[in-house]
Amino acid sequence: MTITRSRKTPATTPRAKKVDTTPEQFIAAAETPPPASPEPLPRTAVASREAEALALVDSFLPWSAGAGILPLPGVDMALIIGVQLRMLAKLAELYGVPFKEQAAKSLVATLMASLVQNTVLGSLAYAFKFTPVLGPLLGIAGLPAVAAAGTFALGKVFITHLEAGGTFLEFDPQKVQAHFRAEFEKSRSGA
User: Fold this and answer.
1) I need a labelling partner for 23 at 20 to 30 A (CA). Which of 35, 132, 147, 161 fits?
2) How many angstroms separate the Cα of 175 from the Cα of each of 40, 63, 154, 161, 182?
3) Under 8 Å CB-to-CB from 183, ≥6 apart: which residues?
4) What secondary structure letter does DSSP report for 10?
5) How far is CA 99 from CA 88, 90, 91, 92, in A?
6) Which of 166, 174, 142, 155 has the alpha carbon at shortest distance from 52?
7) Domain range list for the chain
8) Measured in whole angstroms, how far is the alpha carbon of residue 6 from the centre of its chain?
9) Which residues are CB-contacts of 149 (< 8 A; sequence separation ≥ 6)?
10) For residue 29, what pLDDT band results from cuts at 50, 70 and 90?
11) Could you report the per-residue pLDDT of 40-66, keeping only the tens digit for each?
12) Alpha-carbon distance 150 to 147, whole Å?
């Protein structure tokens, strides 16, 4: 009696192909910079993109001010930051830069915290919300203006950074705090 074995059928999961690269080749490929863009955008395209970015920032100002009206301390700031993150995501899309949400959250929180701490209007508007009865009314009067001006300043700072070819991972909030405060003061004064 002869015993015959049946041939095994191939497994349903495909097997990975062996790649003949050394660790050095893999590392060298990862360290190679991406190819440069063929040619820079013409000056008129850059100006129109910047104008489009400013219009985009302007469209988020009412949303930011509306979030500042809420009489709930903490919730209002979370909503303001949410509006600002959405604005930054749209700016990243406009400039063709990958949006890194975690990095953007950290950057926005750092800049807005410095604004609330280092400006009298920002500190008073936010502090009033914690005062019983009259406080929320006084906070409602001041925080929407601070939120809108802060959102505008944040947009201007990021537009400048993205126009220079920067990304979210390269953005350093410590280096732009003076520019951020100057833009905040300009937008608050209506300039």
Assistant:
1) 35
2) 26, 27, 13, 11, 13
3) 152, 153, 156, 157
4) P
5) 8, 9, 9, 6
6) 155
7) 45-189
8) 61
9) 184, 187, 188
10) low
11) 555 555 678 899 999 999 999 999 888
12) 5
- The DSSP letter of residue 191 is -
Mean pLDDT of 29-34: 56
**In the prediction, which pLDDT does 20 show?**
64
Alpha-carbon distance 125 to 117, whole Å? 11
| Sequence-separated (6 or more) residues with CB below 8 Å from residue 49 | 41, 94, 95
pLDDT for the residue 122: 52
Alpha carbon distance 61, 145 (integer Å)? 10
Is residue 37's pLDDT more than 50? no
Residue 72 per-residue DSSP state? S
CA trace torsion 87, 91, 94, 95 (10° rounding): -170
Q: How many CB atoms lie within 10 A of CB 106?
A: 14
Q: How far apart are CA 78 and CA 64, in angstroms?
A: 11
Nearest to 94 by CA among 124, 52, 37: 52
